[in-house]
Amino acid sequence: MDLPPNNNLDAYWMPFTANRQFKAHPRMFVGAEGMYFKTSDGRDVLDGIAGLWCCNAGHKRPRIIEAVKNQVEELDYSPAFQMGHHKAFDLADRLARLMPGDLNHVFFTNSGSESVETALKMAIAYHRARGEGHRTRLIGREKGYHGVNFGGMSVGGMPANRKMFGSLVSGVDHLRHTHGIAGNEYSRGEPEHGAELADDLERLCQLHDPSTIAAVIVEPVAGSAGVIMPPKGYLKRLREICTKHGILLIFDEVITGFGRLGTPFAVNYFGVQPDLVTTAKGLTNGVVPMGAVFASDTIHDAFMTGPENMIEFFHGYTYSANPMACATALAALDTYEEEGLFTRGADLGDYWADAMHGLRGAPYVKDIRTMGLIAAIELDPIEGAPTKRAFNAFLKAYDKGLLIRTTGDIIALSPPLIIEKSHIDMAVETVRRVLEEIE
């Protein structure tokens, strides 16, 4: 058994983990560099999922390491309320310049879940600030994932994340999902069919009265539900309906942000302008927890009224714009820009797609979806044992030196953007051998 130095695994209640299975057969990382993790038994494991969709520049990056060391010696913490430090303003300015349109204002959080909660609160408070306090309803989407806080779970649409926690936040409804549409199998990029599902928002507007709806939140690409791509024209149609009815559109870019699709953000990739964008993960390359919400000029300016000594938005976190996180994020942005990582997904996109779709016909494969440097390999489930086949693939892949992510019976791959063609070849061949060996 692979145990930590104190030989005790009991105290740590692990998140989103089969705790009993793990503690019977631990999988421990002790180091990481570039594209690889190092296990406690001395093996190298190719990181096929960028940590958890977050280590976009890979591991042990020198510029980031130096930034963390320097910052902890200079200013380890600064209060976020009524005080500031230079790096927070520098980072917000650099981020705003990356985002197209009028998304010129950045509110810092500490995770994707907090970014979602912040954006939902901003949306409701914005309507109240402009005299439409009756707009309180929130619309999410089936199979959506927006973190694990109560607001995010409520607008999210993944049953396993919701079913144990009661009625959640009231006044929430959900659009139908776009997964499994006939004719969209083995898609590369945006699938052809299903844009009309955006009109489901019109149905909800008629059901609830559009004047009661504050915001719609969607992932441009649904990551945690199994890499579900938006059909061509779908996001544009959502934007049109939201504009028509005065509803805010929120893009959850916690996964798609910072180069995942071969552009800085999904906003760039799809050419659709939301009112709010939530981010986290790749913002600091996963090194220090941090998130950010981008807000349009219109939303920001609606709060900037009243006496100047009054707080405009009663919301924030002790660690908002933490100096360590800001320094890390600035170094991560330097790394992304200097190495062309924002567009590397576009440069490698065809090779990645060809390699992944080469698994068509492998045992149990029922669909493959790719976009940028992201892929889903959907498997036929074991009858009566959903999720077990993909979990078996996860364990087998780890033994063979590849870290994958599974959700349901879907294998998800989203490697660091520094990946080379040889790594892609290795990942695909490992998955192929895994599928040939599992039951």
TrEMBL record:
Its cofactor is pyridoxal 5'-phosphate. One of its GO terms (biological process) is biotin biosynthetic process. The keyword Transferase applies. Keywords: Aminotransferase, Pyridoxal phosphate, Transferase. It holds the Pfam family Aminotran_3. SUPFAM superfamilies: PLP-dependent transferases (SSF53383). GO terms for molecular function: adenosylmethionine-8-amino-7-oxononanoate transaminase activity; pyridoxal phosphate binding. Belongs to the class-III pyridoxal-phosphate-dependent aminotransferase family. This is Aspartate aminotransferase family protein.
